Amino acid sequence: MHFTDRQGRTVVLDEITDENWRAVADVAPADDQRRFVAALGARYLLLSMRGGLWNSLAVRAGEVVVGHVMWAYDEEGGAHWIGGMIIDAAEQGRGVGRAAISALIARLTALPSCREIRLSYHPRNTPAAHLYTTLGFAPTGDAEDEELVAALPLR
Ligand SMILES: CC(C)(COP(=O)(O)OP(=O)(O)OC[C@H]1O[C@@H](n2cnc3c(N)ncnc32)[C@H](O)[C@@H]1OP(=O)(O)O)[C@@H](O)C(=O)NCCC(=O)NCCS
Q1: Which among 14, 63, 73, 135 is least surrounded, fewest beta carbons within 10 Å?
Q2: C-beta of residue 73 within 8 angstroms of C-beta of residue 52
Q3: Is the minimum distance from the CB of 86 to ligand 1 under 6 angstroms?
Q4: Does 20 sit in the ligand 1 pocket, CB within 6 Å?
């Protein structure tokens, strides 16, 4: 499947490599978004490297690394999770976030083990809530720390 932003750039999720990790580490949200997410992609990259739970991916629009996103499989709950979504502040509002989440949904859905995709967001994070609900995620009623859990049922 092919995903594009509103400028027509192809949006792709790349594995983290020797070539792209610095750009992914430098991805930064706007200052007032730091109450919702980490200050840099570096935090999520480190979490992925430490744990063996989360898998970081670079979000690339055309030739440029513009964001970070990660996924995990929760064996206990049987759901795949999306986390660590940051589109660099300078690249927001161009349709990259929507294309990136759509691409990750397609990638996870292709896994035979994937029955449900979950994520969480802060209730005051209006852009995130809008993005996820318009992609089909519905609040489950659960909360993780201060965040609402939403799920996309697949099968
Ligand atoms: C949330 C985020 C990933 C969206 O990425 P993006 O590339 O800016 O999003 P898009 O351009 O694809 O827009 C997606 C939708 O969000 C809406 N949106 C984007 N910025 C918005 C804003 N400031 N206020 C309200 N809605 C907004 C857009 O209108 C769009 O909806 P539409 O497609 O129906 O028009 C990005 O804003 C971001 O990185 N925020 C900081 C980190 C964060 O909050 N991550 C999510 C944690 S759960």
Answers
A1: 63
A2: no
A3: yes
A4: no
